[in-house]
Amino acid sequence: MGILEKIAEIEREISRTQKNKATEYHLGLLKAKLAKYRAQLLEPSKSAGAKGEGFDVMKSGDARVALIGFPSVGKSTFLSLMTSTESEAASYEFTTLTCIPGVIEYKGANIQLLDLPGIIEGAAQGKGRGRQVIAVARTADVVIMMLDATKGDVQRNLNLRPTTSAKKGGGLSFNSTVPVTHCSEKLVQLILHEYKIFNAEVLFREDCTPDEFIDVIVGNRVYMPCLYVYNKVDQISIEEVDRLARQPNSVVISCGMKLNLDYLLEQLWEYLALICLYTKKRGERPDFSDPIIMRKGATVEHVCHRIHRTLASQFKYALVWGTSTKYSPQRVGLTHVMEHEDVIQIVKK
């Protein structure tokens, strides 16, 4: 029996098992097996075979955004509109067959946008080119999940932490800093044994479900910001547009009529948590033509490292103008946290 058949069999058993107190251990064990088989499925095949077109794209710019969606939702049109890259677009499905990069220039930042082939239901199990698409998406800072607004919530519904440390002996140690209602010590032990872990220290810092606990053990799950973008809103009623726009983490657009693209860029900037900083030399005006792009929470020390790796060691103090200071200019040290559109002048020893 192959891995896909084993996964299907476990999924069937989970669906027909009634969820109650008596079956929670059995369900937990099934979920652990399911996660293990899925992890095996996403591992690259060791068997030699013909190489396909490469999906690896060198990371460039200030941030990376993966553009994912079902076939024919308008991803290629979106890439062509937002960047200078031309991606083949057509009304039929599976137009894009490999990863096509482009660059969005916004607020002085270069944001790399990757147009990935259309995913199909079961992509996580390796169907279509699901493995390659998921592998590239894991390297992004934000995922844009592009959906067809004419299909309502159908596509969106198809896509939908504790700590453990191994030790050499001593069995299982189970502790928690909060009341744990979803995972008992017996269930945790059963799940760990399924992964051949017999000696471990388990500490729950939040009331996690068995699925979240399995994610920690497997260690191959990556949680990242996701923005749901509904395209083709020009083809639905205004009431439906309003309903979709009010969904959490959602933006409605029309690539065909170029509607609401500016708001999408604003939201993407927020999700990427980027800030623009400007430098100033003594006795000169700030240089607004070449901003430094940093992440929110960046300090003066991070700015020094971005300008030159030796600058932090020669740092004496900095003068900062902007919203991060009480008055302008303010003399600050290396630990001062910068904010969007601050101006900085660094004074060396």
From TrEMBL:
Q: Transmembrane region positions? A: none
Keywords, comma-separated and alphabetical: GTP-binding, Nucleotide-binding
Source superkingdom: Eukaryota
Q: Which PROSITE patterns match?
A: G_OBG, GTP1_OBG, TGS
Q: Which GO terms describe its molecular function?
A: GTP binding; GTPase activity
Mind telling me which InterPro entries this protein's record contains? Beta-grasp_dom_sf (IPR012675), DRG (IPR045001), G_OBG (IPR031167), GTP-bd (IPR006073), GTP-binding_2 (IPR031662), GTP1-OBG_CS (IPR006074), P-loop_NTPase (IPR027417), Small_GTP-bd (IPR005225)
Residues covered by the OBG-type G domain: 63-273
Pfam families according to UniProt: MMR_HSR1, MMR_HSR1_Xtn, TGS
- Statement: the UniProt record of this protein carries the keyword Lyase: no
Residue ranges constituting the TGS domain according to the UniProt record:
273-348
Protein name (Swiss-Prot/TrEMBL): Developmentally regulated GTP binding protein 2
Q: What species is given as this protein's source? A: Electrophorus electricus
* Lineage, uppermost ranks: Eukaryota, Metazoa, Chordata, Craniata, Vertebrata
